[in-house]
Amino acid sequence: MNSDHLFTCVTAPDPGLFFKSEDPNDLRLGAMVETEAATYQAATFVIVSCSQDIGVARNHGRTGAELAPDAIRRSFYKLAAPASLRKGDLFDLGDTAIKGSLEEIHAHHYEVVRQLVKDGKRILVLGGGNDLSYPDGKALQSVHPDITAVNIDAHLDIRENTRRNSGTPYRQLLEENIVQKQQFFEIGFQSHANSVHYLQQAADWGVNMIPLEELTRSSISDCLGKKMADNLREALFLGFDMDSVKAADAPGVSAPSPTGLSAEQARDVVSFFTAHFPATILEITEVNPKYDIDSRTAKLAAILMVTFLTGGTA
What we know:
The protein has helices spanning 54-58, 68-76, 102-118, 133-143, 169-175, 196-205, 212-217, 220-231, 263-276, 296-309; strands spanning 45-50, 90-95, 122-127, 147-152, 184-189, 208-211, 235-241, 281-285. It is α/β, with parallel strands linked by helices.
């Protein structure tokens, strides 16, 4: 694949999602985004999505995440354009989902994201299910062989299932040596959401384990700063599963929980990484609009995207 071929591999985003204010002094992100192929090369940030939740269904979760990309875009493009973002900086490539098996969709998505990485873009990936972390991490490592990966999630996602699903992506990345165990971080996981077997396995592997309790009892910088600095490699993949946020603040997810990060803590985690350890890919998964309330979860996802765009200052 080359850059020109990208546009034949995606479904373009719906222009109706690009909100524009009638007030010229009220600039919104919908007026800042570019979608024409001629503007792609100049862009710093590229949004790409994968509207499928096959992996969630395989993992016996509640389906609906296939609707997330447009719901997130709808909220995102209504937000005020940050001062640091210039016209031409942001490009929306559209959606990579195709008809076929999950494995076929992953293979197609991998090729698109790999080209974006090769082109030097910083990428906002919108799921869909968390199974997307496998092709996204693989695409990053195919260009930057030595990567660090972070899973911000209530779940470890290292299950041994014979068929890949939303609970297996990080096991795939580790078993295929795409990510080295010492360069993998499990952040914000909750013990009651993971079996003793997998908690022990992750510990035995030497994965960097930072449970929700540790993350929230001290400052994020104190909790993560030195550990990240000691393990940061050539490029960083940052996966943010929205079920890491408590249901009061993010009701529209595939696997809701009354406990988790607050909306403010979620933003602060992304802000910390973006300010101190900028990721090549920020992946946001498991938003489920079928169960959202007042677009609360989609709006939070949109705020995390803006935080990534602004270097942690949003």
